[in-house]
Specification:
It is a single chain. Helices cover 34% and strands 22% of the residues. By secondary structure, the chain is α/β, with parallel strands linked by helices. It folds into 2 domains: 174 residues, Rossmann fold (3-Layer(aba) Sandwich), CATH 3.40.50.1950; 211 residues, Rossmann fold. Strands 12-11-8-13-16-17-19-20 form an 8-stranded mixed β-sheet, sandwiched between helices. Strand 19 and strand 20 form a beta hairpin. Helix 1 packs parallel to helix 3 and helix 10 packs across helix 14. The structure holds flavin mononucleotide. The site of flavin mononucleotide has 15 residues, from helix 5.
Length: 410
Amino acid sequence: MWGENLLSGRRILLGVSGGIAAYKSVELLRLLQKSGADVRVAMTESAQKFVGRITFEAISGHPVFERMFDDAAGHEIRHINWAKDADAVVIAPATANIIGKIACGIADDALSTLMMAVTAPRLVCPAMNTHMFENRAVQRNLETLEKDGISVVAPGYGELACKTTGPGRLADPQEIAWRLVDVFTAKDLAGKRVVVSAGPTREPIDPVRYISNPSSGKMGYAVAQAAALRGGDVVLVSGPAVLADPLGVRVRRVSTAHEMAEAVLEECDSADIVVKAAAVSDYRPTDASAHKVKKEKDHLVLELEKTTDILAELGRRKTPGQILVGFAAETRELEKYAIEKMKKKNLDMIAANLVGGKDAGFDADTNTLRLFFPDGRNEKLPMMDKFTAATIILDHVAAILARKGGNGPM
Ligand SMILES: Cc1cc2nc3c(=O)[nH]c(=O)nc-3n(C[C@H](O)[C@H](O)[C@H](O)COP(=O)(O)O)c2cc1C
């Protein structure tokens, strides 16, 4: 679900201090680079006891800033120049020590001095033993950082390297990367309630079997994540999927088409935007067996009945200011079926794709979409990662919102 160009052209400064989790900052560095960022690394002396400078130099392609008074720097005043050049700074992991120094305005090494000169957005990602993290001084210092406008990325909960269990584990590098993307994302959906549905549904045949489809939920999760980053108040109604909850999104998990219908219809009443990306089963077994069906008969006929058409119901209930977006996955005659569906279900836009290929549709990380609008316009998007596709869909949603009664964000 991670977009390839999310940090394209951004200059990120990665600060590494001396904790066990320093090895994870190598993964973070790779992730930031993968999304197009140019990353420079500043390390404390202690950090180098955990991961060598050479690793960061080789991967970042830049010298590492580690010593204030370094002959190799020549006349360059690195702590000022690097601070000036950065679009954002992230310290991961941040030790109790560097947190304390930043909170108190101490500048006695390369990283802490550089932090003093930074005016760009700053993120600090604490990682330490639970007792250290819960120490009053550390908590006080973290509060000070937040008051000073520095974002703290809360550590995760779990078993730590020191064998204690509790908060203190460095936030997942993927989460840290999202937080950086968040810094650069315009909040054009602020104040908007967004409902997104995603994933397949499962219609039981008996307690151990069901009818479903190969939808992974990736498209809907990407829309939910992109909408939350743009400031939307987002709820994601998800059928069974193995994806991590998108950051800053309330997730409601359901299984059957009936549960999906109940949850979506409940949530949509007060929604400004509804994006229905779930692959809901059109039919379900009429009588699910209470016990496992035994392999006795040579032929077995399964009787099916229609499930609730959620999108049609949403179209009927749509209020004048509300925006309804649907998806259509077809194996043929894409344009004809997509336009028919858009009209029949009173949609403001439909995103359609042909399924069956390996780079698009179900379970792929990429999608090749065509967008259709009620006024006859359509837009053919090239193959792209699902997050980028979600961003383009939301650009259109924001534009439609702005046109509808002027209550839009733009
Ligand atoms: C094996 C080992 C692991 C450590 N892990 C952490 C840690 O995860 N978090 C932390 O705040 N300090 C940790 N420390 C303590 C710091 O390295 C120490 O406080 C140091 O002064 C931090 O310096 P710095 O903030 O300049 O990097 C660890 C020390 C050792 C010996």
